[in-house]
């Protein structure tokens, strides 16, 4: 129906950390940019030379329509006074559709340079997506963007397709959530899905707090400039921007801390405890301002939070999350709980095809550690096999890659939810077309 070479479908995976967009049939997304956006209240932008209005004496101007949004890595990388960084996604669900529309606009108009009217759209969605969320997405796609056809596919199913399997247990650890979802014959077994709020974002925050405890403060890139005083020798000059918001400062610090985490951390072979990791050799990392820091036990402690969430309680400054963490289960328990909620007949098959996906899953030794823990805790008869693509890019983009494969299959072309069906049956028809 929408096959053929002229028009290729567009695949969009809007995650809690990054948005991935590109053409179906390609092996990697064309555009990858943050899901967070910068927001400045228009009141501060419109009247920079009128101090009276700047004082905030007209609160009604702070209404929803009066904000200017900055989307994309470049727009966010540029510091602006009073710019707040906000994310449209909380706990895997969209809480601000206005921002989502701006993100989609950016993907179509700035990154892919396409007219959405001409391309069918495949949207990846979390397993926990509600009916209202799906209908809202369909409504915006058909009403605002006038797309010819649409399909919503579950993240876990797409990851399974990307690895060429119809049945598997998908462990997707992203920026905001870790989800364990069994997929059987291309469908998610909804009753057995387990989620945990521990994702890359929490680990990054734990690392920032842990470094601060040791007296290391990560300076955001906008807060200093480096001058060369002699060849190869630099002096750092601090810059002061009093009107920078706390959320923007944290966004910039997280970007650096996230890089430290990706470069130096690895999952420990055995559960972390202070005594055995206290005199471990440190690894050095050079911060953007030129200072070199040594990262020791944190390299192992931070990743181990995925396996033992109560470790969060030992990190000063994370108290607000520590109460939640006490009741959370680690990755191996989530996997076993999820498999136990499935039908007895498919449990063996799930144990032998556990797929790791998502940006956080690219951490060194994570696959080996998860396999080791599961071998100890799973039933004797189970053959445990944790599979992960050796290519970190494929792990990060596995959902998008699965969507790219699915939308370019000839046999898939009659599955699209078309614009004419939308006009005839309304948005609720998405439930029937995209189970």
Automatic annotation (TrEMBL):
Belongs to the actin family. ARP4 subfamily. GO terms for molecular function: chromatin binding. This is Actin-related protein 4. The keyword Iron-sulfur does not apply. GO terms for cellular component: cytoplasm; NuA4 histone acetyltransferase complex; SWI/SNF complex. GO terms for biological process: chromatin remodeling; regulation of transcription by RNA polymerase II. Keywords: Chromatin regulator, Cytoplasm, Developmental protein, Nucleus. Residues 41-66 are annotated as: Disordered. It is found in: Cytoplasm; Nucleus. Involved in several developmental processes including organization of plant organs, flowering time, anther development, flower senescence and fertility, probably by regulating the chromatin structure. Residues 41-52 have a biased composition (Acidic residues). Its main location: cytoplasm.
